[in-house]
Amino acid sequence: MTFFKKIHYNSPVVLTFFFLSVSALLLDILTKGWTTVHLFSVYRSPITPLFFVRLFGHVLGHSGYAHFAGNMVLFLVVGPPLEEKYGSKALLAGILLTALVSGLLQCALFPHTALLGASGIVFMLILLSSLAGMKAGSIPLTLILVAVIYLGQELYSGLFVQDNVAHFMHLVGGACGTGFGFYCGRAALKA
Fold first, then answer.
1. Among the listed residues 37, 49, 45, the one whose alpha carbon sits nearest the alpha carbon of residue 116
2. How many CA atoms lie within 13 A of 155 on its CB side?
3. Most buried residue, 12, 38, 79, 110, by CB count within 10 Å?
4. pLDDT for res 155
5. What is the pLDDT of residues 26-55, one digit of tens each?
6. What is the rounded CA–CA span in Å between residue 8 and residue 68?
7. What is residue 189's three-state secondary structure?
8. Which tops the pLDDT comparison, 8 or 158?
9. CA distance 24 to 164
10. For position 188, what pLDDT does the model report?
C-alpha cells in the first residue's frame, strides 16, 4: 500500500490525455470500431455536434495498439518536461490548437479520408522541446537540426512512400509546435 501512496499524478494534462487515449482504444475494441469512426476520427461531414467532437477527439483515437504505443511512448517521454516548463494550461492550449488546425486542414484538403491519432501532437511536442532554452533574438541550433531531419523525413515520406500515414499532418503538428514555442518564448522573455 505504501508504494501506491508514493505515486503522484505528476503531469495532469499529459496523463489525462494518455488515459483518454487508452479509453478510446478500449472503446474501439468494445464497439468493434464504431466509436473510433464516429468519435475519434475526423473527416469531412455535415456540421453536427459530433463533427465538433471529432474535430478535437481525433487525436485520442488510434488504429490499434501498435499505433497507440508508438505515439504514447514519445508523448509520455516528451510531454511531462514541457508541461513543467510551460504549465498545464499552456500545454493544453497547444494540444487543442494542434488538434483543431490538423482537423480543419484534414477536412479541407483531404475530404475523402479520415485522420486519427496523436502523432501530430507528438510532433508538436518534439518541435516545441527543441526550442527549450531559446534566448532573445536567437534561433536554437537544436530547432534547426530537428527541423531538417524531421522535415526532410516527412517530406520524403509524403512524396515518395505509399502508406497510411498522414505525413502532412505531422508537418502541421511540427509547425504548430514551432509557432507555439516561439509565442511562449517571446511571452516569457517579456515577462
1. 37
2. 6
3. 79
4. 77
5. 999 999 999 999 999 999 998 999 999 999
6. 23
7. helix
8. 8
9. 20
10. 55
Phi/psi-derived region of residue 117, left when phi > 0, alpha when psi is between -120 and 50, beta in every other case: left
Report the alpha-carbon distance of residue 62 to residue 68 in Å, rounded: 6
CA distance 8 to 179: 31
Cell 464516429 locates to 38
Give dist(CA 165, CA 185) in Å, integer: 31
Separation between Cα atoms, residue 139 and residue 148, nearest integer Å: 14
**Contact 148/92 with Cβ under 8 angstroms?**
no
Question: What is the maximum span of the chain, computed from C-alpha positions, in angstroms?
Answer: 54
The amino acid at residue 7 is: I
CA distance 41 to 148: 29
CA–CA distance, 98 with 42 (Å, rounded to integer): 13
Sign of CA dihedral 121, 54, 90, 190: positive
The mean-pLDDT minimum among 32-46, 60-74, 154-168 falls in 154-168
* Angle between helical axes of 65-86 and 119-129 (0-180°, round to 10): 40
Residue 57: half-sphere exposure toward Cβ, Cα within 13 Å: 20
Q: State which amino acid sits at residue 35.
A: T
Tell me the pTM. 0.85
